[in-house]
Amino acid sequence: IPNGAGVAAKSQKWLPSSLIDGQGLDDGLGIVLLNRPILLEKQYFTTLWNDAKVRVTVDGGTNRWVDFVKGNINGEHLLKPPDLVTGDFDSCNQEAMEYVEQLKCTIVHTPDQNATDFTKSLKVLKSHGYDKQLSRVLALCESSGRLDQIMANINTLYLANGILPGVDVFLRSSNSLSWLLRPGEHSIDIPHRLVNERIWCSLVPIGQGCQCTTDGLKWNLDGSRALQFGSIVSTSNTYATNRVRITTDGPVLWSMGTTPKDM
Question: What is this structure's pTM?
Answer without folding.
Answer: 0.91
